[in-house]
Amino acid sequence: MTRAIAVGVDGSAESLAAADWAAAEAALRGAPLRIVHAWLPQSTDVTIARSKDELATAADAFVREAVTRVSGRHPDLTITSEVVQATPVDTLLGEAERSGMLVLGSRGHGALLGFLLGSYGQQVIADAAGPVVSVRAGTGTGAAGPDGAGEVVVGQHGEPEDSEAVLRFAFEAAAAHGAALRAVRAWTLPPLYAYNTGVLDVADQAGGLEPLEQQALTRALAPWRERFPDVPVTEHVEIGSAGQVLLSATADAGLLVVGRKTHRSPIGTRIGSVAHAALHHAGCPVAVVPPA
């Protein structure tokens, strides 16, 4: 059975955009949709003091609004919904573990970081067991392909096994939408101490450092091209910062797929510079995929 696509809602325009995107994705993939809102009376994201009954009424209204909205657009879609009295982080992490993907709304960069990058969103992205898709208001309801906004762009790095999960998600998304896929590998010049005889010999055999990076990307893509022969693939290798190179390739993208590197520090959890840049600055939905 196809696992559900889950979406967290909080009544904001961004979360309704996330519900629209998740519903369109679920309808396309033949998956059920699950709409969830979590709250606690003492939750720190409540800025105006209200009674427990008022909060419960508002929570129910958030979910009803989202259900009514998406069921009207997708009458054949199987939809379940739930209001949970629990912490948002724990609830959303549970949904991410049980579902095929979790979808959240995002305000992106600016003065207000809101639902996604506020008090709990980054924790969810950093710790989720499965892919988390960030959607902004106004970015459309389809990820990519003939009926959507464009190609699927995916960042690849390291050895083939390092990008297994992110490439699987990207190829599956491209296949589902009938979209082209653009695989991006950024590279930088190694530090001087890394220029040993072995590195130079390998680079010389490949015709230089950039052809060597091109070979690495081609090798990583090979099994996925074989598994998804109908997905058109463009290989994009460019020198520069990984975040900047990846973002520059998303002008016509319907979906950006990046991997996640979780870093723990005394000031909180970090998700890696590339995922951070993508979530703040990409103009299309962003899927953050944990390692396999």
From TrEMBL:
InterPro entries noted in UniProt: Rossmann-like_a/b/a_fold (IPR014729), Universal_stress_UspA (IPR006015), UspA (IPR006016)
Start and end residues of each UspA domain: 1-136, 159-290
Gene3D superfamilies reported for this sequence: HUPs
A Pfam cross-reference name: Usp
Family: Belongs to the universal stress protein A family.
Name of this chain's protein: Nucleotide-binding universal stress UspA family protein
